[in-house]
């Protein structure tokens, strides 16, 4: 029997944790990665070379690579701050940028690098162009730029993406992304930043239509903690409601939520000012709206930081498959 096709959409470290565990399973994996990051090393490279920001793509490639760890450590190596010219840049970001410049095609350069890195599955940047994230806040104010948007102490109402190279046209995802979603057995959103890692992918018009058409089970892995500048005070149901609202119809029917209590000391260490808290579970609203809820201990605490336990999430996903 052929392997099940699983598409995981998002960005950030949470996505890499899930992919690293799923690659051990008998599934055909495709990671669809956001291209609207404009902060840190990715943002600097993006501004200088006008390429898709490489940071999230780099982390996903490492998560799915089968190369020896010492080679992956080299790819992930970040230059020290005193190295003025290379300060803060990860070597992998520079390699991805160089390949993109050589081929003049980010998508094809990632496919080439995937072969060199012996990737288990596919890594697809959602677009071949670097996109700009736009947000409207509840008070009607509009701001641009992912790293800029999260600095406002205001609730975000909605987000959308634009292509600075083609302002008059709506951004579109590359065809392999659409084909992967339409042919998938399961599509997973997250875990990751709701407004800056997940939504920038699904608000692209042909991605939204593909999610509407696919026969795949669409699930959302809810964040364990709220996020400053994005999801303070939002429940797990609020997260899902926002996703479905951006998709313009109820597309996500299943949610994975952590039910293990986080020690208060760890919560405080992750949010010393007390802004961030564990995402509140609103089971009644979820069930009343016909949402399938998979509630379990998905918590993993490493070096006092809060993550999803990749192995436990993998088992829940395989059970759903």
From TrEMBL:
GO cellular component: cytoplasm
Gene3D superfamilies associated with the record: CofD-like domains
GO terms, biological process: regulation of cell shape
Compartment(s) where it occurs, according to its Swiss-Prot or TrEMBL record: Cytoplasm
A GO molecular-function descriptor: LPPG:FO 2-phospho-L-lactate transferase activity
Keywords: Cytoplasm
Biological role stated in the UniProt entry: Required for morphogenesis under gluconeogenic growth conditions.
HAMAP family found in the cross-reference section: Gluconeogen_factor (MF_00973)
Family designation: Belongs to the gluconeogenesis factor family.
NCBIfam families registered for this protein in UniProt: CofD_related (TIGR01826)
Name this protein carries in UniProt: Putative gluconeogenesis factor
